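## retry 2 of 3
previous attempt timed out at serialization; input unchanged, resubmitting
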Amino acid sequence: MKISILLPFKENFSPNYAGAVSLFVNDTINHSIYKKKITVFGNTNYKNFLSTNYNNIEFKKKIFSSTNKLYVEKFLDIESKISSDLIEVHNRPSYISIIRKKYHKLLFLFLHNDPLQMNGSRSVDDRIKLLQNVDKIIFNSEWCRKKFFEDFENKSKYLDKTDLCYQSTSKIKIDFNKKKKIISFVGKLNKAKGYDLFGNAIIKILDKYPDWTANVFGDEPREKLIFNHKNLYLFGFKNNQYILNHLKKVSISIVCSRWEEPFGRTSLEAASRGSAVIISNRGGLPETSSVGIKLNELSTKSLFNEIEKLIKNKKQLLFLQQQNYKKFKFTHKYISKILDNIRNQYLTPIPLFKFNVKKNKILKILHLTNFNRRFDGRLQYNTGRRLNNGFVRLGHNVLTLSDRDIIHDNKKIFDPTGKNELQKSIIQNFKNFKPDCVVLGHVDSINKSTISELRNLNKNLRICQWFLDPIHKDGPDYIKNNDRISNNLRNIDFTFLTSCPSLLRNKINNSFFIPNPSDTSFEILKNYEVNCPNDIFFAMSHGVHRGVLKYGKYDNREKFIKKLIKKNSKIIFDIYGMDKIQPVWGNDFIEAISKSQMGLNLSRGKPAKYYSSDRIAQLLGNGLLTFIDKETQFNDLIGKDSIVYYSNLDDLSYKINKYKKDKKQAKKIAKKGRNIYLKYFNSTIVSDYMLSKLFDYKSSNNFIWTK
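## retry succeeded, writing output
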């Protein structure tokens, strides 16, 4: 496994004058699981480098030849001997076409600036070509991604080729009692950075409040803005570590850029050191600090007023400092994990544990399900993505096809449903990828003839399907869901259900129960560690694809919930998907669930053996004390020391009130529930179980839910 990182020409990968790109690359490498597999390539005149895994590219310049082109070609000469599995190019779209002519493996592009201002990505045609030539474009802010897709007619078609990975910095313990009356400015001392606004405002501040000082770090040889005051100190350019150490003492940090900064490392670092941050509401700056004071009006007067408010109100100043520090999460470790997860989608990752599949064979898996690309990340926590994570963590090569998105994007006059195009896409992807197995998840639109064609192309092909919806006779869509499962049954080797297979209308051979998988990259909360403002969380919807409440639509669970609320007036409920309160999705869901100590796992229809919606993974996995009807017989799978079982409305009410009072015991059960579910019901174990059935191998995992 080899990864080559190509920096922009003349990017100083040196502590002497390191830019944001070099710092990002170096810091994320140090915390990456691929650390020993990465080589950084660049060109700098400095002799000391940020890390030892750096290769300084030297070449002879030629008259009338592009220096950048010569630089990239020299890199490709070196690369031809290394033969990396992945090349990551930073901030130079113009390099991509040169590299792609000679390099045909994985290629990522990182964009740290406004793509509309860079060669190779200014026009829509340029950006479409980039999407066609790379495997992934990774942006350092949502603002950058929005700029990239400016004027696109159908950006949803390309969104799955992009991702987001913010810059990072360290986080250390801060003693707020040691904060000094210091106001800082870090950056180029020019008008684009708003240094003129800062200078004019700070002189007035220092005149009015002589016990305060201002420290400025940076230089600008091309533009001279001179401000003098006995309490204003100019330090010139200092390396990043010096700045970070200084920010520990700073009370207020100013980032008042006129230009639309793609992200803003200065405000990020100030937040990590517990400074109150005043930022301009431009570009990606608002993404760097959730509690930063935003300057909607960029003027000396506006900046002066905001600084003065903080100086006068010491309690507000301390509150903003502490909140900035508390809510800061963009650590090197956190961002490196995000980046490694992106890499893992394409590379065979470092395995989490050893396993054997036909003498350690790495399987090629074609996974067909609805990955909801067209919903712009709203349905990001779906089971398909969870299982993908499991397959990849096991070391397998996974190709994903989103059937509903393909259908949605290919409806034409002669193919009004888009289903014909889906069949073509499946077959063509199969021919190019040549998978060992096909995994289907709710793929209702695949034709029997298509599956037959796949089997003709690979006589040893194994095919399975997984199904999440209720299948019991007292559940919704009983007939429809059973028919969906049996539609292509003759062509399916194994069927996996999140209900007990005994509930099926007709017995199916080779059908097995699987739990709704948890995933440590999705279930990131530990609610038992905090005192949440709400008691009970419950959420439902009138259809995940619709995303909003539908007028006239009624869910039988509403009656139960209303009775529960009426019966428990002292309980603080946080309910979504009913009574005109819209359902929550994506990150909004995580934000909502983080505020409740307990969660109700109530699925549609009458409770049935082992059936639960995928909500159970989110409740247990995020450390909420979870309540579930005992008729689900989950006690076969999870003990009562990890989840709370109730028998009826009165019993549920009693237990909610009991654990509201006994917080210590509630948190103990919630913690045990999270630990059990993430350890034994995670996506890696569930995926391994499916493959162990499909390829008849003995797994080293402990499938406690099969006992």
